[in-house]
Every structure is written in C-alpha cells, then in structure tokens.
Amino acid sequence: MKDLRRYLALKYIQYLVLSSSNAVITLLGLLASAYTMILLQSAKVSSKSTTVLISSLAQADILVFLSLLSDVVLGSFGAGGPGAASALARVLLTANAHASCVLLSCVALEAYLITFLPAESRPLRTVSNARLLCRALWALLAAECALFLLHELLGGPSRRPAGLLLRLPGAAAALLGSLSYGLGVLLRIGNVYVYYKIFFSMSPR
Asked: What CA–CA distance (Å, rounded) separates 172 from 148?
C-alpha cells in the first residue's frame, strides 16, 4: 500500500538519514505510527511478514511517547529527581532508535530477498518467522534498557570494595554503546546498498 511505503520512507529519513533527532520529524513519526497501527488493523491489509515488521516498527514509537510521558510525570512529581526522569527518557529514546534501525534494515533485507531470491527465500519470509524475530528483538531491547538503567542508577565513582562490581554495568553499557554505534553505521551502509541494487534492477535497461 502507498501509505505504508510513505511511512517507511519517513522512518528511513528519521532514523537512517538524519544524524540527530528532529522535533518536527519526531512528531510526524509519532502521528504516522499511530495512523499505521490503525491502518494495519484493517481487513484490507493482508497479514504478511513485511506487515508484521512494519507493525513492530510502529509499536516502537510507543517508547518515544513513554519517554515524553516520563519527563512530564517524573519531572512534575520529582520522583527520583530530574536526573531520573531524563535518564529514563534517554534510555527509552535509545531503545526506540535501535529497534527502529534494526526493523527498517529487516524490511530492506526482505525487499532484497523478494526482488532477487523470491522462490528461494519464501520459506524464510513467513509470518511466524517475522513474529519470532520481533519477539527476539524486543527481548534484547528489554535487556538493553535494563542495563542502561542499571548503569544510570549505580553510576558514579566509588572507592569501596564493591566499587569494581558497581562499575561493571557502566563498562558493559559503554561497550554496548560502542557496538551500537558501529552497528548503526553498518546498517546505514547496508540499507543504501540494498536499495541501490533494487533501484537499478528495476530501472529500464
């Protein structure tokens, strides 16, 4: 559907083209995700592996809404101090960006398989496999959020014997951040290559 293609184009711009978050694009992304979640409930949209991935992509923007809500609620009531609100918002936004980048890359990879290996990849491109992939991704995101939150809560220098143990989440979070940055660069390069190949394969000779 044209609406879903427009939605994917907006998300590619938001997460794989722009180098930093933009308030206008973020708002448009939230509105587009809400519209897409409603659209996917329609009987006119067939249940395919691509629609499962797009549905998870739209649901990932719930994390953006929760980050805004945490800033308002925790900031207003002072629960845990303003630092706790900003830390939670940061973690949720990071998880949203990571989920969106991976899901967009999964959609790109599926488009590549459909274009160049339609018959060979059909056993892989099933609704059940797409749902399993999304569940695994959300489980990894939950673990990532827990690690980053633990780092925020236990962060800070300590000279006590337990200091080394308390610094472990910080070291793990730093390593994960470095890996995420490198993976993000690779995903951007991979997406450009995939759509470059698809575009020129469909262009008139």
From this structure: 9
Q: Three-class SS string for 168-181? A: HHHHHHHHHHHHHH
Output the six-digit token pair for 31. Answer: 């509105």
Helix 127-154, helix 81-116: angle, nearest 10: 150
Name the nearest CA neighbour of 60 among 34, 28, 27, 22.
Answer: 34
Distance (Å) of CA 117 to CA 105, 109, 201? 17, 11, 13
Structural contact between residues 130 and 53, judged by C-beta atoms closer than 8 angstroms: yes
Tokens, residue 172? 């793990």
Break the chain into its structural domains and give their ranges. Answer: 1-161
Give the pair of three-digit tokens for residue 14: 């938001």
pTM, 2 dp: 0.86
- Cβ 131 vs Cβ 106: under 8 Å: no
Which mean pLDDT values do the consecutive 10-residue runs of the chain (205 residues) have? 90 85 86 94 84 95 88 64 70 91 94 93 94 94 86 60 59 78 87 88 65
